[in-house]
Amino acid sequence: MGIQRRLYRFCGAVWGGVRRRLDQRAFIERTNANLRSWIRLPAGWYELNAQLRVHARSLDHLSANARLYLETAQGDCPHTAMGIPFKSGQPTQRLIYIHEPAYIRLDPVEFAGPFLVERFEIKPTKARPAEWAAYNAGFERRPDETLSYARWIAEIEPALIERYAATPASDWVVRLAPGDQLAPHAYQCVASVAAAHPDCVAIYTDHDRLDEQGFRTEPVFKPDWSPIRFKHHNYIGRSVFIRQDALEATGAADGLASLASLLPKLDTAPGRIQHIPLPLLHEAADSPALASSAGLPTGADPGGQVSIIIPTRDGLPHLQVALASLSRTLDATRTEVVLVDNQTQAPDALRYLNQLEHQGHLPDSQIPVRVLRYPHPFNFAAMINAGAAAAKGEILGFLNDDIEALEPGWLEALLPIFSHADIGCVGPMLCYPDGSIQHAGVALGLGGVAGHPARGLNPNDPAVMAAIGGLGEASAVTGAALWVKAEVFQALGGMSEALTVAYNDIDLCLKARAAGFTNVLVPGVRLLHHESRTRGSDASGAKAARLAEEANWMHEHWGAALTDEPYYSPRLTRARDDLALSDS
């Protein structure tokens, strides 16, 4: 009980910048302050109750992320760190397992300016692992304690189905394989969506598979209607319902063709094809499964010159690796490189840039290179804009200086996507040096403003690639490796220079989407990314304060658009990036 009484006290900030109000609540005056338990806690289960409020009540609608760390005798345990989304003024409760004596530290990394700690309590609890998994579904890190699909079926799915209550539909057709089973409520859900969207001609759903014992497994959660993705890969499968009159108009009402194959014959104008994000078809265990996507675009290479713009500063070792990889893999007849030098000071790096500027081409290659000097404080967006203004190519490629190309032909494999109409920003898959995924598209609302789904997962895992969905539409792609037509970039006004480091790529993609362009992920093209070698992490100190300011800028400028994510299933949690199931 002595421990419990002490843990109930409000915790101060490690870095100072804290003063007490008369009501005993802590007022944090500095954004790099974080909260830590007063004593090192024994191993076991603990309950955290916290409530934060931003400094202005007018901002109570804003959400932000905090990170929960365990500090052991060896320091932080990043592999156990837990992302916790907060909404100003609303309580948050979590159950935490400490595997060895440690402090519990809460770092409000995205809270900009002063904020009020209205509650920060930690107390021991007798929670068991199964209860912890149910309570913290989507937040826990240990893979054996995630929300299982069986539990999701039992506890989460029934409440979701209730949202689609309606009378049965009688004028919609679905074609099944032997042994397939429709969910008992499938037609009611279809009727509900049809009533809400009277102009729709097709409705598809998520699906799963029945194992040999008849249990539901292997859920496939799909994005909303994605015509580019569908053109390259049938990601819908058999779980599609077509309105009877629309089916008859195709001339295949009595045929054996799969209904998904008939979708191109329908009117696919916006709103005409709807998606129900629930697994309403349970495929037979021995029935054909969806084929995997190759991840490469079809179509002709649009031709023209390509300018690759690389901001850099004092990063000679990885810049040399990046440029050597471009020399090995690019066609010198259609490519130029523009290096934007942000006040390089290291003698070796400066000598290397001067040598490149003098010789006018990359080492061991005839690819033209220019060095553009940017003698101002670091601003990634401004450097990209300056490089784009100096570029000569019809297509612009933005690369971090810690990107490494792996095989010849990757650029030629990427460019045919621009043969499609109204293409905005395009990005390849990026992998860490250990081969795991760093970038496979960006999902809005993931971890706060936006995040990278499947980060750290194996790109050769069929389940992971099925979740990514193959080549197709994405709300955004990372600026670490982003391609866009020069005329589109100019029409969008370039990158927003108010976002000096973070989210400028997300903002650019949102501007493209708002202007009617489609952003696309091309996962069949893979590059290597040595992430943050240049500037380090944004997890603490002044960088955390800057990240919080830029997150607030995004919320102020984009508002509800940051939660409009059609290409990342609502059945997957927004609290973590490992494709875990959501508990809502």
From TrEMBL:
GO terms for molecular function: transferase activity. Pfam families: Glycos_transf_2. PANTHER family: RHAMNOSYLTRANSFERASE WBBL (PTHR43179). Residues 307-424 form the Glycosyltransferase 2-like domain. It comes from Spiribacter salilacus. The keyword Transferase applies. The keyword Transferase applies. This is Glycosyltransferase. Keywords: Transferase.
